[in-house]
Amino acid sequence: MKTKTNMKLLVPVLCAGMFIYGGCAKQQTVKVDQPIAPSATTAATSATTQPAAKAAAVQPAAAPLPATKISSESIPPQSQQSVAGKAQAGASQADALETIYFDFDSSLLSDTARATLAANLEKLKAKPGAALRIEGNTDERGSDDYNLALSERRAQSAKKYLQALGFPASKLSVVGYGEEKPAVKGEGEEIWAKNRRDEFVIVR
After folding, report:
1. CB 183 within 8 Å of CB 196
2. Which residues pair with 174 in a beta bridge?
3. What is the pTM assigned to this prediction?
4. What is the spatial distance between Cα 183 and Cα 193, in angstroms, rounded to a whole number?
5. Contact indicator for 135, 175 with CB cutoff of 8 Å
6. Is 37 exposed, middle or buried (0-12, 13-18, 19+ CB in 10 A)?
7. Among 43, 46, 169, 173, which residue carries the largest CB count within 10 Å?
8. Model confidence over 138-165: pLDDT tens digits?
9. Which GO terms describe its cellular component (predicted)?
10. Contact 159, 134 (CB under 8 A)
């Protein structure tokens, strides 16, 4: 009888003990769980990326390219011709003889006109054998016959002064155009003043 009674008392104690042990085991399992290790692919990618980033940081900046010198050989022939043409045009403008101007209804040379004629003569001296044609002009006011005669007198005035400076008369010729060849078209004193003039043409 005592044995059966003891067994009956022991069973509940064993059950309670097993229940408590089971709960503790679950808690220990949860606490003991380790964090998930990174996958092999992630580790390989990280290992590859870090050295590459370090190499990029250490790599020095690229050196600047040396300046390229441009020689005349690298310029297209058309551009060289254009530059040469501009140089010739500039030289011809420098050698061109300057125009002289007159007061209204006058063929007298002003001080400015005399200085211009002297400068023109110096340019002519650099051209041995050159002859000179003097072209007289007027503005539009006055009759055609009067303006034609006035333009010839203006050309003659320049011729006589150049002769006085030593230029041979045999190399000088004159022509009067009157109002037929205006330098500037229009009306007004500013425009007319530009048309009362002598122009000089070098004749070879």
Report:
1. no
2. 134
3. 0.56
4. 10
5. yes
6. exposed
7. 173
8. 999 999 999 999 999 999 999 999 999 9
9. cell outer membrane
10. yes
